[in-house]
Amino acid sequence: MDAEPRTSAPGLPRGLTSVLAVACGLIVADLYYGQPLLPELAASFRIPAGVAGLSVVFPQLGYAIGLVFVVPLGDLRATRPLIVGLLVLNATALLVAALAPAVWLLLAALTAAGLAASAISMIIVLATALARHDQAGAVVGKLMTGLLTGILLARTIAGAVEEVAGWRAVYGGSAVLIAGLATVLHRRLPLHPTSATTTYLPLLGSIAGLIRREPFLRWRMALGLVAFASIQLLWSALPLLLYAKPYEYSTGTIGLHGLLGAVGALMAHQLGRLHDRGHTHRATGILLALAATALALTTDGTHLIPLLVGVALCSAATQGIHILNQASLLTYTPAARSRASTAYMTASFFGGTVGGGLAAPIHSAGSWPAVVAAELAICAIGGLIWVISRRRGRTAAASKSIGSDP
């Protein structure tokens, strides 16, 4: 972990890129532990599956709140104390979740944990601020490899731990890991002060102005919303399919299917390099087409191999769109990076919250084919956004200030 990767810029302290990649993985896992646990949470609290599904929605909602009201502070204050403070809150909230005697307290704690997990955006912004401009995509790619690995292992580990020690051990163990991470980052992160002269409320108000001025930001926000809605709908509905006939898998086995996300994690680093070479828009279109094609393989839902292949490829494609979006937007001027990230990630996680929240109702209404139909509709919307943004020349206009994209 101490060896400096080639993608790191001279401005990054030795080994810090790897440390931050691990941090992104550990923190983001908090948002996804609940997905394979839905059947057990429903049984433990004696609640309907739809209510249990809120344990996936509320952390995403908390994350969105953190993005709007906390992450912009990265353009106003030194980053290290903000990140460490959020991790302390995260660990405390996860401990409360592990001990929660009622579902309302569990949901409140998970919302707070999601808010604190917005530290991820601050970590990514800090890493790109320390990296050279021509390596921003590669650095983001490495961090996203850690983040995506955290997502896929979250589902797998949560399912395995639940079978051995119960769902409470999942959140309790995560609380311990996050507390340790807070100590490490307090020691390793540079202070990296800002030179901002504004105050908090004008800073928040300036986000709307940034969105209004930058068409490229608006298009990437729309694509991020679509990508996150797709991936959250897919992964929230998949456990419901695998728990029922003809599969009837246990929680642990369902969690193992989270390893399907490894395809996206393996692609992350190379996708970051594609951005550095100026192929962001073209690659985004290819990934949208790949997602739609992959979904067609899963339509029936009763044949395991096509289902697994389709889910893996669709997940990788939507994750790839997010990576390209992040790499593009983080080449903003340093004074606006946190606010650009706030705008984009807020839109993305709004999409994720809607997608995750619709999974149980859509599956209940029409089973897996209805989920696939909804996914294909989302892909069609994404394709329309991609085509319109290209025809109107939004990307080319933005490239002068944000980065090349032929």
Automatic annotation (TrEMBL):
> Keywords of this protein's UniProt record, alphabetized?
Membrane, Transmembrane, Transmembrane helix
Q: Domain of life of the organism in this record?
A: Bacteria
Keyword Transmembrane on this protein? Answer: yes
Q: Which Gene3D superfamilies match?
A: MFS general substrate transporter like domains
Q: Kindly list the places in or outside the cell where this protein is found, as annotated in its UniProt entry.
A: Cell membrane
Mind telling me which InterPro entries this protein's record contains? MFS (IPR011701), MFS_dom (IPR020846), MFS_trans_sf (IPR036259)
> What membrane topology is annotated for this entry?
Multi-pass membrane protein
**Parts of the chain that traverse the membrane:** 12-33, 45-70, 82-100, 106-131, 143-161, 167-185, 222-243, 249-268, 344-362, 368-388
Question: Pfam families attached here?
Answer: MFS_1
Q: Which residues form the Major facilitator superfamily (MFS) profile domain?
A: 16-394
Which SUPFAM superfamilies does UniProt cross-reference here? MFS general substrate transporter (SSF103473)
This protein's record includes keyword Hydrolase: no
* Protein name per the record: MFS transporter
Source organism of this protein record:
Amycolatopsis plumensis
Instruction: Please spell out the taxonomic lineage of the organism that makes this protein.
Output: Bacteria, Bacillati, Actinomycetota, Actinomycetes, Pseudonocardiales
